[in-house]
Design a protein that fits this description.
The protein contains 19 helices and 13 strands. The protein is an alpha/beta fold.
């Protein structure tokens, strides 16, 4: 289905052309003065310079032409040259019914298929997920779902950090603690020797311990560096222990992501790109880009006009080992081989902005992908406490993601303990409400900004919260259930009988455009804004009208149809935010 601003732009462009003006001046946008009109066109202001006419004359000409269209209730020219547009109720109803009958619920689909690889999540092997991993996971999941809703072929990759310095440190410390393990013997045989089971608690504790130790113990640091080289050369024993550690770590990470309703198409890591590093080196050499600097092999990526210093990309360290940039560039080659993506998007902490600037420039200079391939990095802000500092546990430590989820679930359970309306699994209901509060509380903000974690606010039944949205959906469910309608029913809206219905209808119509904005900006906040607007307008409509007891059958059936469409629209928006609804609460 064509989005409403495109429909109106086409009509307005045609009117400009009929009046002898350039049709490109006919772009229509949502009005920034909703008390005056629903949509507006500012093209007459630009046309005044081109056609040497007063903008009001151009606006008046076009408004007169548009007024002949029955889809418009009112079109007027307003100083200094705006064209204000208000739709007819009949046209609004036709748009609602078109959305209701559309399999994509009005979301305009791509004219031709395109493929996006989205790199998000970014956990590290041998380390527990902490709250710093939350935003990448839930924002990335929402961007993935939103892009799919628009018709993209989307490939989500968790892209583990599993092949660099941290794993040399971790394995070196395991050797200190468990020197008798078969994997540390020179005659280790992968076919017959067995590595003991990995204790997850010990695994999670080892890396931070080993990292701190390497800063004080030079000999240990040297051993750990050699262990990285051994790992990347797949030395038996070292490589086999790494695989065991990774299996335990991946299983743990999967269980946490499942609680967040976050899923990936591929569970690749840096190690999966290792087979492409030789090709990377070869291609960099072919282009004459790779050169030696202080013992390391690097590529210069600074450009004229850079406002900050952009250092060379290190491809090989002086000891011959690879680092993050090497893995990311090799992964780009892998993705081009496997998927031929039109776009590759990354979602990480904004502190990695410079890293991705370096990687993207190097990839383009080396022609690892076609010139048309789009690279994009969303660097998101931090979750902070009320003091503006990164959110911590009560004792000042970094909170694990599993502990955060548990804390939110417990708070939701406490909030619901006196509710008489919950049926079924109360723990599952508490989980869904808690996750809705957590996700919406995060994603309603611009992702590049820091935001304050305030659980009491997030769980409020009033205001712009995920809890409020779930409550609105349950209210709609209740109305439809009492009327004997299925939640996914799509009866036709019969008319507009009040200002409240009109406002709700326009919110639904405009919601179809929020997907495009959310995807273009990598910002689920556009979906949050749309969902909240619809929920607020429905609440007003619900309070102003007795839907189930309305004596006029035409009104009642139309109101039920509008309620059903509101519910379907909200559920689609919430699904793209990764939020599961509940039956009642």
């Amino acid at each position: 289905m064509e989005k409403i601003t495109s429909v109106l732009t086409r009509k307005t462009a045609s009117a400009f052309e009929k009046c002898g003006y350039d049709p490109s001046l006919g772009e229509v946008a949502v009005s920034n003065r909703p008390e005056l009109c629903q949509f507006q066109c500012n093209g007459a202001l630009s046309g005044a310079k081109i056609f040497r006419k007063p903008p009001m004359q151009i606006a008046a000409d076009v408004a007169a032409e548009l007024s002949r269209d029955p889809d418009f209730k009112e079109v007027s020219a307003c100083p200094p040259g705006f064209i204000n547009i208000t739709l007819s109720d009949e046209f609004i109803v036709s748009l609602l019914n078109e959305i209701s009958s559309d399999e994509f619920l009005g979301v305009q689909q791509l004219p031709s298929p395109k493929t996006i690889v989205i790199d998000y999540g970014g956990p590290n092997v041998a380390k527990p997920l902490h709250i710093g991993h939350l935003r990448s996971a839930i924002i990335g999941e929402s961007v993935k779902r939103t892009a799919r809703a628009l018709g993209y072929n989307v490939i989500g990759d968790v892209h583990f950090g599993d092949w660099g310095t941290p794993y040399g440190l971790t394995i070196a410390e395991y050797k200190v603690r468990h020197p008798d393990w078969p994997c540390f013997k020179d005659d280790f045989d992968p076919a017959s020797d067995v590595i003991p089971e990995i204790d997850e608690a010990e695994m999670n504790e080892i890396y931070p311990y080993a990292s701190a130790k390497s800063k004080e113990d030079g000999e240990f640091k040297t051993v750990s560096r050699q262990t990285v080289v051994d790992l990347q050369n797949r030395k038996p024993g070292v490589y086999d222990l790494w695989k065991k550690i990774k299996d335990v770590s991946v299983a743990s990470v999967r269980s946490i992501y499942e609680k967040l309703s976050v899923d990936f198409d591929y569970w690749y890591g840096e190690s999966d790109s290792d087979g492409y590093t030789d090709e990377l080196i070869e291609r960099l050499n072919e282009k004459g880009l790779l050169h030696e600097s202080e013992g390391a092999m690097v590529v210069d990526v600074a450009e004229d006009g850079d406002k900050i210093s952009v250092p060379p990309v290190i491809i090989k360290k002086s000891d011959g080992s690879s680092i993050y940039a090497t893995f990311d560039l090799a992964t780009i080659i892998q993705r081009e081989h496997d998927f031929h993506p039109d776009k590759i998007w990354y979602l990480t902490d904004k502190r990695q902005n410079l890293h991705f600037t370096q990687v993207f420039r190097c990839a383009k200079k080396a022609e690892l992908v076609p010139e048309t391939t789009e690279f994009k990095h969303l660097g998101f802000g931090a979750m902070t406490g009320p003091d503006g500092k990164p959110f911590k546990t009560r004792d000042g430590g970094v909170m694990t993601l599993s502990k955060l989820i548990e804390m939110v679930e417990n708070a939701a359970r406490e909030k619901l303990k006196d509710s008489e309306y919950i049926s079924g699994d109360k723990d599952e209901t508490a989980h869904r409400i808690g996750m809705a509060a957590l996700k919406f509380g995060d994603m309603q903000n611009q992702p590049t900004k820091d935001y304050v974690f305030d659980l009491d606010k997030f769980l409020s039944f009033d205001g712009k919260t995920g809890t409020y949205l779930l409550y609105t959906v349950t209210r709609i469910n209740s109305v439809l259930k009492k009327a004997g309608l299925e939640y996914d029913a799509s009866p036709k809206v019969g008319g507009i009988f009040s200002d409240g219905e009109r406002s709700l209808a326009l919110a639904i119509i405009m919601s179809t455009q929020s997907y495009e904005k959310a995807c273009a900006d990598l910002a689920p906040s556009a979906l949050c804004d749309s969902a909240y607007t619809i929920a607020s307008e429905f609440s007003k409509f619900y309070h102003d009208n007795r839907i189930l007891t309305e004596p006029d059958p035409a009104k009642r059936e139309s109101w039920l149809a509008l309620s059903a469409l509101t519910g379907r629209t909200l559920r689609k928006l919430l699904d793209c935010l990764g939020i599961e609804t509940v039956e009642n609460m």
